[in-house]
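Hi R.,

Here's the chain you asked about this morning:
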Amino acid sequence: MATKCIGEKYRCNVCGNEVTVTKAGGGELVCCNQPMEKISESK
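And here is the predicted structure, written out as tokens:
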């Protein structure tokens, strides 16, 4: 899933790592060779 907004949060469904977008660049977040799942929208 491509990052679009600052503040979005993503989780890796394999290892559980979580990240918060601080600079949106439109790229896809990948961890453990799989796309990360968006868990919340920015506010």
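One quick note: The two ends are 18 Å apart (CA to CA).

Cheers,
M.
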